Amino acid sequence: MEEAKGSEMGSSIFTKDGSVDLKGRPVLRSKRGGWTACYFIVVYEVFERMAYYGISSNLVIYLTKKLHQGTVASSNNVTYWTGTAFLSSIVGAYIADAHLGRFRTFSIFSVVYFLGMCLLTAAVSFRSLKPPSCNIQDIADAGSCKPASKLQLGIFFGALYIIALGTGGTKPNISTIGADQFDEFDPKERADKISFFNWWMFSIYLGTLFANIMLVYVQDNIGWTLGYGIPTVGLGISLVIFYAGTSFYRHKLPQGSPFTKMARVLVAAMRKCRVNLPKDSLKLYELDSDEYLKQKRFKIPSTNSMRFLNKAAVIVGTSRNPWKLCPVTHIEETKQMLRLIPVLIAMFIPSTMTAQVNTLFIKQGTTLNRHIGPHFQIPPASLASFTTISMLITIFLYDRFFVRIMRAWTKNPRGITLLQRIGVGLVFDATVMIVASLIEKRRLTVARENPSNGGRVPLTIFILLPQFVLMGVSEAFLVVGKIDFFYHQAPEGMKSLGTAYSLVTYGVGSFLSSFLLSLVANITQRNGRKGWILNNLNASHLDYYYGLLSILSFCNFFFFLIVCRFYVYKTELFETLTGEEKEELQEIQNRG
């Protein structure tokens, strides 16, 4: 008995979720992972997001004032770049899950990221890499200045897209590395993991806040060399901090290509479309438990959802060709990823809103009175800091108060379900568009009452504050809920791909926003009409455009409700805990 007890105690000091060190050895719970490891990762993210948003927040202003691009061209170039950065996360996720693992994939692409930042800083620093200066008082004047040459544009955008590639390899893996530091089989660590994504997003927006306030001011008032040099140095510091914590990290082994695995299931099921399923699911093909233990993985029992795919596990003859016969666990993993696709589609419209309105809100700010006192002017991009502050406050209140109150009522460890959290965010998202339309209507009215004011509207820039604050509240529910949802609902061996799903929504949204902006601009200018979106914002009708976006948002919300009605949550590892362990977890949450 003592020997058995000793064996039980010995196993309890190791993690139970398949975590290993970089050499593939089991991990001692007390030596690696938990919040100790996450501190390094979270601090890295603060600096890295400061670097990324130090570039992206004011990029539309640089394209307009330094590269002399118009409203539609500059807005589209920003969204093309951000779209590429987020879509390339699929590449980073695939390499991590299939081949190199998250840590090694992150390490390679972080070097690419840093080199891109260095090249971009050089591109804004040397005169030969920029067109001649031109005194632009208003965005409408950009077309009268000498445009950048093909070489200048090539170097600048080449640097941007190197950064996009680096972001694609680091972004889907760093948050997953952070979440991997918590073992769901340990009640205390599971309780910590539930809060992790709240504080993860808190760290992201802390870095964003610094970028929107300090870096934007430096870029607008001191210079772009220093304004881009600081985030480049910040990224270098973030990498030093991340690697300083290497000895504390837990890792998950790569488990083969998720795309190949899913393709095999679909092909095998199609090949056996006329084969009858056995009444007993235990007769379906499955690997031995030892095979999964060797790979630090877990078996998943067969379910009745998407029953057609279960035919991939029907044993016909003696062939074990993986394109004709798939184990039940692979089939269930495929089902879990396929279930995410309707939710993924429902996230395209809000991501389109985010990509679009950020640049347009900033451009609206350039037409307003930005003075505070006789000498200080607020950089338009700094208004985004109010979105960040609003989100930080909302996340804090959500994690510390809202979850506790709702948990007592719903008995859900998260307070409300992941999809409910996303749904609340979608309602706020649509509300932002309505408020933005009303505020823009007011701005245009004053602009037309004062046509001889040099393009400046005699209204304070703070009239835009409500829409920025509401965006922060929306993102606290929507953005955090989205990344949490896709991570937790993805199979254990496809977590990076699941996280990439949440990033892909921004990529698709960015390209959709460019398409939508160009489409509306072209349609509304046909037959000699003035159009809704012009270089001169005071002659535009952004209020109509925001109204159109609000209609799209509400239509998308109703589509999301339909998706929620049919969505089935996967069984989490938590469900495999004993009753005693679940009670211990509940006690920890009640104390938390």
From TrEMBL:
This is Protein NRT1/ PTR FAMILY 5.2-like. Pfam families: PTR2 (PF00854). The chain crosses the membrane at residues 78-96, 108-129, 149-167, 197-218, 224-245, 340-361, 381-398, 418-439, 459-480, 501-524, 544-568. Gene3D superfamilies: MFS general substrate transporter like domains. It comes from Dendrobium nobile (Orchid). It is a multi-pass membrane protein. One of its GO terms (cellular component) is membrane. GO terms for molecular function: transmembrane transporter activity.
